[in-house]
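I hope you will forgive my troubling you with a question about protein structure. You will find the record immediately after this paragraph.
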Amino acid sequence: MAWLQAWRLERRKAWIQRHLGAELDALNRMAASLGVKSVQPQDLVSYWQVGKATWTSDWTLANAVESGLKACSALFACIRRRSEAVSSVRFIGVRRKGTESTPVDVTHPLQVLLDHPNTYWSRQALIGRLVAHLDLKGDAYLSKVRLSERKPPSQLWPLCPDLVTPIPGGKGEPFVKGYGVKTADGRELPSEPAADIIHLWYDNPADDYRGLAPLQACGRSVDADVAAADWNKAALDNRAVPDFVVSHAYPLTEEQWTEARARVREQHQGSANARTPWVLGNDAKITQLSLTPVEMDFLSGRRFNREEIASVYGVPLPLIGDYEKATLNNLEVSRAIFWLDTIIPLLIGIASTLELGLAREFGDEYGIGFDLSKVSALYQVLQGRMETAKGLFSMGVPVSQINDRLDLGLMPFPGWESGWLPANLVPVGAVTESAGGGLEEEE
């Protein structure tokens, strides 16, 4: 009978809970008596983060592209500027020996991988996609493809961040033990080992496994700008005039109401009919309901949204097409500021992550740098620094120290760790003071 089966199930449940509870209490008392605790990185993470598989947000990558990138011109301009700037810089593999660093040969597997990540994506396309993923989602992922398990990767492929989920490790496991990956149609794939995924992200103080996109900070400005553009388009499509009510002094039959409504739409809907004369029946009156674009300060509102979006992404307004106050001089300054304050820090972050997740595959002595020598926006800035560098060089300061101090972006070369005297450019260590007080060369 049903009641008898239910009674038996309840008794079985109570027995299991009683015996398992006693066993668990015994294990807890044993662990406490040992007094030993192994601290893992996961123990230092807020308890609510552990096991948090996904970071859910209204601004998924798909939504960011559809409702942001395609709909907001200011957002599109910022993303494009940043992606094009970063992808125009060539990443360089370097080999460190002691305090010296030298670029690897162009045929070295690390440099080949940086220049030609796979058979489909060029270097510029791959880096540009990574920056777009970072700017829209806060995370970017690269999948390593190996010819065999023990060899370094031979190809790099970008992954959609909406389809990748970091898997936090437990006690005794790596901080991230793997990555869950889905296909575009939602099918679960076998999890990827952490060693086969390079995860780039913008720091998120509230989550140690997911990044925080700039779009999260300026999302409301993007929404407001899109809504303002939609409002303007709707106004043009419907009448190209403010909202109003047409009222009559006498009641209308349903047929008269339908006829009047059709006439209004026919004669005054669409931008071609904007500001055309109104022809109304007897005793008809128009009452305006909405504010005019001037009262709404329409243009100023859109300009404010554009300024806020550009500010969050670190892009000066003249670089996204706002030339209202632009001059030749401040255009050059804007380009230099864009590179110094926005692009170079981003390049440093990408290079450091690639060095940790990619260059070390080829050996601990390998690293990754980047070449800024072809960035014309920095020429004026570099010119001033070069004058300072000449003064330091004439004092015998090594080029390597000058490069680090002034951030010249120079690549290492043989002998740049040595200081030189300006007279005949002999190494500083090659001269000593003679007994008569002069200088003579050492044998």
Summary: Residues 34-56, 434-443 have pLDDT under 50 and may be disordered. The chain has three domains: 48-234+292-371, 244-289, 388-443. The first helix runs from residue 2 to 34. The radius of gyration is 33 Å.
